[in-house]
Write a structure and sequence with these properties.
It is a single chain. This protein is an alpha+beta fold. A hairpin with a 3-residue loop joins β3 and β4 (about 75-85). The protein contains five helices and seven strands, in the order βααβββαβαββα. The chain has helices at about 15-20, 30-40, 95-110, 125-135, 170-205; strands at about 5, 45, 55-70, 75-85, 115-120, 135-145, 150-155. Helices cover about 35% and strands about 30% of the residues. The protein has a seven-stranded mixed β-sheet with strand order 1-2-3-4-5-7-6.
Length: about 210
Amino acid sequence: MTTPRDFLLDDMFKFNHIVFDPLVEVYSLPFVMPKILEHPELVLAVVSPDDRMMGFILGSRIVERTENIGDGEDTRQSHSHISALAVANDYRRLGLGTLLMESMRIKLDQCTDWYVDLFVREKNLNAIRLYEKLGYVKYRWLPQFYVNDHGYDMRLPLSRDVERRSLEGITMNKIYSFGNMLFYLVMLYLVGLKDILIGGEKDGLEYGIS
C-alpha cells in the first residue's frame, strides 16, 4: 500500500484526470490555491510507482475562533475542515479514500483540534457510508447547499474532545433539519399543485371550457 505524502505544487499538473471526473466535485484554482498555500501541511497526495496521481485530500483549519461548545460556554478553540477528497477512477475501491482520511485525522489530532467536519451531497451515498464508517456523523442537513442537491454537514470529534462536546446540539439540529425538510417538501407539493391547476385552466381555455 502506498503512503500519503505532502502535496507538491507540481502536483497541480498531475490531477486533471481526477478533478475532471464527473463523479468528483470540481474545484477551481482560486478555491484550491489559497488553501494549499495557507496550510500546505494539510494537503496530502497518493501517487503510483510511475508518479501518476491516484488521489488527494485538501484540509484547512479555523484557528483561535470563539465558538459555543457543548453547554454554551465560550471556548477559544480550533477545528478543521476537509475541503476536498478525491480518488482517480482507476484506483477506487482500493482503500485510498480511507487511507487519506485517516492520515489527515492523525495530522489534525497532532494539531489538537476539537473536531473535523466536511460537506457531502445527500445523494452521494457511497461517500456518506465511508465517512460514517470512519466515525463521522450527520451533524445537520443543508437544504439546497449544492446547485442541484441538498447536503450534509458531517462531524468527527478528535482526540482533544474526549467528552464529544462538539456533537452536543445534534438532536436540535436534527429536529430543525426535519422541519426544513418538511417545509421543502410542502413547498414542492404546493408548487406542483399550482402548476397542475394553471395547466388545467390553460387547457380549459384552449378547448373553450369555462
